[in-house]
Amino acid sequence: MKKANLIILGAPGSGKGTRASALCEVLGIVQVATGDLFRNNLKNGTELGKLAKSYMDKGELVPDDLTAAMVEDRLKNPDAARGFILDGFPRTVRQAELLDEILSRKGEKIEAVLFLDVPDEEIVRRTSGRLICEKCQATYHVSYNPPKSDGVCDKCGSKLVTRADDKPETVLKRLDVFRKNTLPLVEFYRGRGSLIRIPAELSQDGVKADMLGLAKQIGLAG
Ligand code: AMP
Known about the structure:
There is one protein chain. The chain is α/β, with parallel strands linked by helices. It has a domain at 4-120 and 183-217: Rossmann fold (3-Layer(aba) Sandwich), CATH 3.40.50. The chain has helices at residues 16-27, 34-43, 47-56, 64-75, 93-106, 120-127, 168-182, 184-191, 207-217, and strands spanning 4-10, 30-33, 83-87, 112-117, 130-133, 139-141, 160-161, 195-199. A hairpin with a 5-residue loop joins strand 5 (130-133) and strand 6. The site of adenosine monophosphate has 17 residues, from helix 2 and helix 3.
């Protein structure tokens, strides 16, 4: 399979994580989710984690240079050699410029940017009821994508919890930040001809087949 470097863009709760992980399975590439990286740092008590928490708790963005440095470091890992999907990065035009610099240092580029277009009402519905595994970070939803057994992760058997920043007031703040800082990236990448819009009405059951169809459509899978 061709090497695929992809970005998935979408509001918080748009289903980015679920779609990114399905696409990774289909293409054999790695998912690089900046939110997960920050949460792992936090769990491990690193300085970066402590700093990130002060922003995350308020639903604000961690500064661009710190976030980009973390991504550059992550992409040096050999598991990214076959390609990657960036989930939650870039989130500002400045981050997109920093990403260009990171990739040009590696002699690489982005193949396609997938934009999950989800109406606001749907976002609020999906974010309330969202659950995350405290160990492996797999995500679920009490109604749309429930775990097989209540409160327990299907993948690793650990406890499912609600994300600290999924409180309704923080979700509204994150949506606001998304509109102001991240949505301009849709035009940024559309201008480069690399944007693919994905209507996000799809049921959870269809995600994997749909992502395979998409990968074929953009010439990344046979
Ligand atoms: P997520 O899991 O992608 O919803 O991210 C959770 C939180 O982590 C965000 O609300 C931000 O505070 C922080 N974060 C994640 N990705 C980024 C990024 N690319 N730039 C700045 N902050 C980020």
